[in-house]
Amino acid sequence: MIPHLDARCEAMLQEYRDNLPLFNEQAAKVFNTIKKTLDDAGLLVASIEYRVKTEESLAGKLELKGSKYRTLADITDIIGLRIITFYIDDVDKVASAVERLFTVDWENSVDKRKAHEIDSFGYLSLHYICSLPDIPYHIEIQMRTVLQHAWANMNHDTGYKSGVEVPRQYLRNLSRLAGMLELVDDEFSRIRSELTDYRRRVKALVASGNLDEVPLDGDTYRSFLELEPFSALNRRIAAVNQAEIHEVSLLPFLALFKGLQINTLGQLDRMIKDYSDAAYQIATYQLGLTDLDIISSSTGPQDLCLAYILKHDGGKIGIRYMFDTLNGPSDSHDSLAAYLLEMASDLPFMHQ
Prior knowledge:
Beta Polymerase, domain 2
């Protein structure tokens, strides 16, 4: 129900009605501008959402606080946009982007992250009041993390701001929870920063060739693949039939290498050097009597693993393990393993 308003507030409410299409248009425009800017910068956020204040909400605000406002343009949250980030340090990156896009009214903007005493915890968010081009109205842009957003919603649901006095023990528990969420926010950002540093160190070690110092994991393996370690073997195999090489992802081999107890990039590098001739013998045997003119880039590493398993007496079980790991378990891998084991017994590397 629309409350009773004095003539000045009713005039502001009518101005809102007249300009509602403009507000909706500007809200969508700001949303699209910010989203494109963050996407172009590669800054991943949890969500971006916007809204235009409803007539009922505006009327309620005018009823309670109408004396504060001379004109509708003095109400800075008719249009609102909220950007929720995953990490606390990304809030400042988003804020920097907003500052470049819009004129910020610093006097009316609030950084609630700095508003608490040293021994208190609570709602944290960065609120910018920004001017909109060519019109006298403003937009409020809120920036906060997923956990800060969760806290704001929980705080709202508890009725903390409802005007009902909350017993002291509940306030204390709410404060403790807010402190825990702040700590988790900080820890997430710290862990991300340390992982970023780790990836940089790994890339430097890989580039320097100090591979024995680099453990084999998802990040290091990806960095290693950038060096195209299997390319020479694949080109050698492709030359058997003058075949083209079809590039596929080699990430599935990580689990297989780990299963074969290859635990560092140094060990993997030596495996490639030590078993490439054997892998080539396997590939030549398989391709020599065919006219296959396209091979997969997985051919080299697969034959490499097969040679490694055979030389380490892995036998049929080891070969089946290889195919189960790469392609998922299948009963057909038994017969394939038996065939390859018999085939390999005639190859020179098995008698060296």
